[in-house]
Write a structure and sequence with these properties.
Helix content: under 10%
Strand content: 35-45%
Largest sheet: 8 strands, antiparallel, barrel
Order of helices and strands: HEEEEEEEEEEEEEEEEEEEEE
Number of domains: 2
CATH superfamily of the largest domain: Exo-inulinase, domain 1
Length: about 325
């Protein structure tokens, strides 16, 4: 009997090591707890984002008024940390240990000492621009049939574009729509947690990173790398499809000198996170220097299996 139990544990351990972080069917049990929760506590709307940190550990970010992009007033948020207990309940306490969340079966209960003050239900948000159809005169770069518009262009067996793709067509002023899915890597930290990036003209990067529940810095999802942080961290959980919708105006040049900076407006999952943001320089690691020439759409390969679909560009 002991040998059988050991074999089961060994198989489970090996399968965990071999799990594909880009495959939604190969997640661990923590993934079911991770996500967004919303409800009422003491007659006030409260929400939280529960982030899996690996091996049953979790970080919870609590918001008053609702989730980012859905009611949060951009004010103070509270951090709690916890882990799964022997009953399979995620028990997360604040630093002072005066309050806690317990999470099980899609319900987060908020406790003050031994009293339940309210419950939050798990919700699954979707970007309002998910599946957006290309307008007339738009150039469809990828729709799942072929990766021929990118060089190199690699496609998965389930017809998704892989990281490290550079568009063959070049663009000046344009509007761009892209859908992307970040991998699930709960044990990774920082820039190792599902990293890629969307480079406008191959010069200006809007970061792609599993920043779900994090602070929302300029090197996290939605940040313009090294230039500006997003107004709100609109990153959804990993393995959930997300969208960027970008209106981009290229820099202007005269006689070889730049006379006006580029700027762009970025919507992440339908919420404006940069409004006519001025871009004084190209971002770090951009493959193209600034110049008057049009540039390509570049999806960075940073060693993480980020996936893309429904990519189109409308020249302006």
């Amino acid at each position: 009997m002991k040998k059988i139990q050991f074999s089961i544990l060994l198989v489970s351990f090996v399968s965990c090591l071999n799990a594909d972080p880009a495959d939604p069917t190969q997640v661990d049990s923590d993934y079911a707890v991770q996500g967004e929760y919303s409800g009422m506590i003491n007659a006030k709307k409260v929400a939280c984002q529960v982030v899996a940190m690996g091996e049953g550990d979790f970080m919870v970010r609590q918001y008053e008024g609702g989730l980012p992009g859905d009611g949060w007033n951009l004010g103070k948020n509270i951090i709690l940390r916890g882990s799964l207990n022997e009953k399979g309940i995620a028990d997360c306490l604040n630093q002072e240990k005066t309050s806690r969340f317990t999470i099980k079966d899609g319900v987060a209960k908020f406790w003050m000492k031994d009293e339940v003050l309210g419950s939050l239900q798990k919700i699954d948000r979707k970007s309002p621009t998910l599946g957006a159809n290309p307008p007339k005169k738009a150039i469809v770069l990828f729709e799942g049939a072929s990766a021929e518009n990118f060089k190199p262009g690699r496609m998965t067996d389930d017809h998704l574009l892989m990281e490290g793709a550079k568009s063959i067509k070049l663009f000046a002023d344009h509007r761009l729509h892209i859908e992307f899915r970040l991998p699930y890597k709960p044990k990774a930290r920082g820039q190792g947690r599902g990293n890629s990036g969307l480079y406008l003209q191959g010069r200006y990067e809007v970061q792609m990173l599993d920043s779900f529940g994090l602070e929302g810095k300029n090197n996290e999802c939605g940040g313009v790398y090294g230039i500006a942080s997003p107004r709100e961290n609109m990153c959804f959980p990993p393995l959930v499809w997300q969208t960027y919708d970008v209106d981009f105006t290229a820099a202007r040049f005269s006689k070889g000198k730049k006379t006006k900076n580029a700027f762009m407006t970025v919507r992440h999952n339908g919420v404006v996170i940069h409004d006519k943001l001025e871009l004084p320089k190209r971002t770090t690691a951009s493959p193209l220097k600034e110049g008057p020439e049009p540039g390509f759409v570049y999806l960075q390969n940073h060693g993480n299996p980020v996936r893309y679909r429904n990519i189109w560009v409308l020249p302006l």
